[in-house]
Design a protein that fits this description.
heterodimer, A: mainly beta, six-stranded mixed beta sheet, three-stranded antiparallel beta sheet, 9 strands, about 0% helix, about 45% strand, globular, B: mainly beta, seven-stranded mixed beta sheet, four-stranded antiparallel beta sheet
């Protein structure tokens, strides 16, 4: 089944830009979705179909996807952005169609 | 407004059974893909099962043969029947609407229900 690889942690200073990667074989041919999860809370969708933002998600959140890497970019990082972030794809040809990455802990210094 | 409310979690002994429910409002469960996702303590998200609008079901290898996903259209509710439970099934279980277009994205999630498997 399809495997998504994320770095366990990313650290960034407030006001700077954070980039969280999600690696997969030819992931650029799939649609990638990103979720934010804060401690004790359910995941929240922040980016879908590579780069679309649900209503209510700040423009500071953006996404891209090409080749073997998808990237979630958070500009002008705030303390409230500290959370775990997960990428996800749908592998339509598989018996295990929903695939999540291992998650990345974003720490705001 | 879309809402998903899980229930049915609790403490169960190894080998026991539990049925989780996910009551939906604001949309029709049977017209959507629906999924269960779990999170063991301190771990990441793990996909468990999905039911497509047409009724096809799929399971993670870790639960195949022990868990069954189903829905009750009259109650607009999703279920997860969990049998032969193991300690490694201990987790918060989330239901999610898995909206389908050209891909599947979990656009709404419930608050989660905790399942603890322990003697």
């Amino acid at each position: 089944s399809y495997v998504l690889t994320q770095p366990p942690s990313v650290s960034v200073a407030p006001g700077k830009t954070a980039r969280i990667t999600c690696g997969g074989n030819n992931i650029g041919s799939k649609s990638v979705h990103w979720y934010q999860q804060k401690p004790g809370q359910a995941p929240v969708l922040v980016i879908y179909y590579d780069s679309d933002r649900p209503s209510g998600i700040p423009e500071r959140f953006s996404g891209s996807n090409s080749g073997n890497t998808a990237t979630l970019t958070i500009s002008r990082v705030e303390a409230g952005d500290e959370a775990d972030y997960y990428c996800q794809v749908w592998d339509s040809s598989s018996d295990h169609p929903l695939v999540f990455g291992g998650g990345t802990k974003l720490t705001v210094l | 407004e879309v809402q998903l409310v899980e229930s049915g979690g609790g403490l169960v002994q190894p080998g026991g059974s539990l049925r989780l429910s996910c009551a939906a409002s604001g949309f029709t469960v049977s017209s959507n893909y629906m999924s269960w996702v779990r999170q063991a303590p301190g771990k990441g998200l793990e996909w468990v099962s999905v039911i497509y609008s047409g009724g096809s079901t799929y399971y993670a290898d870790s639960v195949k043969g022990r868990f069954t996903i189903s829905r009750d259209n009259s109650k607009n509710t999703l279920y997860l029947q969990m049998n032969s439970l193991r300690a490694e099934d201990t987790a918060v279980y989330y239901c999610a609407r898995a909206r389908y277009s050209s891909s599947v994205v979990a656009d709404y999630w419930g608050q989660g229900t905790l399942v603890t498997v322990s003697s």
